[in-house]
Design a protein that fits this description.
The protein starts with a strand and ends in a 9-residue tail after the last helix. By secondary structure, it is an alpha/beta fold. Strand 1 and strand 2 form a beta hairpin. It is built from 10 helices and 14 strands. 47% of the residues are buried. Helix 5 runs parallel beside helix 6.
Length: 320
């Protein structure tokens, strides 16, 4: 097993993200969520990531309920701080992209008291007395406050054993680099910035993380879907992909085809092979999707594929 940075938290190479359990883009039933989590445990996944934002608390509730029948000490759960779920008294809340969200707002909050309230609420929804990993979630516009106010709370909770490892979760690079250089975090959850289409994470973040003993959990490896199924989901970073991205994906897919490897299998293997990456975080909304993802993750990708992609200028020559 692999460890998250300097912490004692052991995780596997593939982990499960739970945004779909909050009804990301489409509703998911409680029963389907439970079946998905049960199947993941049975298939050997032991690390589950969630957040208050996902379904405005619903993903945490569903994950906690589904894991209730499993041995807690054999599992790794991460959640996040930086957003508070605030129930609406009057009017309708904006549920955004989460179809199963209750009538509640999710507001950014990085001060000390809000951080403690967020953790308490997450522990309640998850039905546990501790979390194994706690991330500061998307402090893009609140970096100074997150470092000065949120981080010290997490550091203390780690010392007290309420939290096993601490980190920051983002889809940009500047702020995570600040955390790696200026704090004692264990892990960075980086979404979408190290993929077949975007290797910017390897420029500065990955080297300083390796030097500092900070692990990388890589999310968003399909860049919102285009690297998983470009024919039916031409989305890149939550938006319709522009023609240049579509062209690049076509070129990458052609190289993969010549080597007998599917595009999603190559996308997963490319990220997993970098020495800074401890675990690849995959989302799924059904047992069938979970099986597909794990099948892709088990494909042996020949080294010649990476060499050809680099020679064609489709990925960095030094990637991985």
């Amino acid at each position: 097993m692999t460890r998250l940075g300097r912490s004692c938290v052991d995780v596997g190479p593939i982990s499960l993200g739970t945004a779909a359990l909050g009804g990301l883009y489409d509703s998911v039933s409680d029963a389907a969520a439970c079946r998905l989590v049960d199947a993941a445990v049975e298939l050997g996944i032991r690390y589950f990531d969630t957040a208050p934002q996902y379904g405005h608390g619903v993903a945490e509730l569903r994950l906690g309920a589904a894991l209730h029948g499993h041995e807690r000490d054999s599992l790794v759960i991460s959640t996040k701080v930086g957003r508070l779920v605030v129930p609406r008294v009057t009017g309708e809340a904006d549920r955004g992209i989460f179809a199963d969200a209750p009538n509640a707002d999710v507001v950014f909050a990085f001060d000390r008291d809000s951080t403690l309230r967020s953790i308490e609420a997450s522990l309640y929804r998850l039905g546990t007395d501790h979390v194994d990993v706690l991330f500061i979630h998307d402090p893009d516009d609140f970096a100074d406050q997150a470092i000065d106010e949120t981080y010290p709370v997490l550091h203390r909770l780690r010392d007290e054993g309420v939290v096993g490892a601490i980190g920051v979760g983002m889809n940009q690079l500047e702020v995570p680099i600040r955390f790696v250089r200026g704090t004692d975090i264990d892990v960075v959850l980086l979404a979408g910035r190290y993929t077949l289409l975007d290797q910017s994470g390897a420029d500065e973040l990955f080297p300083v993380a390796l030097d500092g003993g900070v692990s990388i959990v890589a999310g968003g490896v399909f860049n919102s879907g285009i690297l998983a199924d470009p024919d039916t989901c031409a989305m890149y970073d939550y938006q319709p992909a522009d023609p240049e991205i579509v062209r690049r994906v076509g070129d990458i897919s052609a190289v993969c085809h010549r080597h007998g490897v599917s595009l999603p299998a190559a996308a997963l293997a490319f990220v997993a092979r970098h020495p800074a990456v401890t675990s690849v975080l995959l989302g799924a909304r059904s047992v069938e999707e979970l099986h597909e993802n794990l099948a892709h993750a088990q494909v042996a990708v020949p080294e010649d594929l990476w060499i050809e992609l680099a020679e064609e200028g489709l990925v960095r020559s030094d990637a991985g």
